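Throughout our pipeline, every protein is held as a single compact record rather than as scattered files. Nothing more is needed to write down the fold, since each code stands for a local backbone conformation. The record that follows is passed on verbatim for readers who wish to inspect the format.
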Amino acid sequence: MQSMAKSQRHAAVRTRRARRGTLARPLDALVFLLPLIIFYEIASFARQDRIIAFEAVLRFFELFGHVGVWAPGLAVIVILLATHIASGDRWAVHWNRVGWIYVESVAFSVPLLLLNWAVPLGPDDGIGGFLARLAVGVGAGIYEELVFRLLIISLIVILAADLLKLDRGGVAVAAVILSSLAFAAHHHPPIGRDPFDGIRFLFRTVAGVYLAAIFWFRGYGPAAGCHAAYNAALVVLGSLRP
């Protein structure tokens, strides 16, 4: 009986793996993101103006008592570890897949860079020196993808598809659109500081749909990596301008 139950558990794990296909495993995504999280925390340690998504996660934890600025980074780690435990996968890091996430993050950022080049967005007022702007860009990749892709899309799918039993395909499309609109809107007042501009809003909405597609088909790690790589490329290219 125990052997049969164990066999069924292994079969269920294999089925989940087959269903995920090449989706980046949470443990591999965590190993990939950990250096980026550490870099953001160190580089922005003395800064008071952190990214909005980071502050939103921090304020949520402060509802339950005083926490340090390390709480959002810890939240990413805990969420990915919990997801890995729920997946039933072995506790083994696939280092080749971790390396591949870095490669595909850069590759996925190219269409966004081309779109940025094609659309007349106007100047982007970066605040601080090169390292500060790079840290903000990397942090935005981690925490904006956490809030607008991992949390919002997952929450909508769980509530509408899993609990209310609505059509999963339609729910996924609605979740992508709603999360992308929220992602674009949060850059502008009353939440963000960027004055509203229709072209920028449309660009960020399209970028949000693109990042949501990466999240849906490849996972949180590649989506966050793509976002961070895109932001880092803009910072580097901006520093090269005379």
Remarks:
- The chain has one domain: 24-240.
- The CA atoms of residues 54 and 143 lie 6 Å apart.
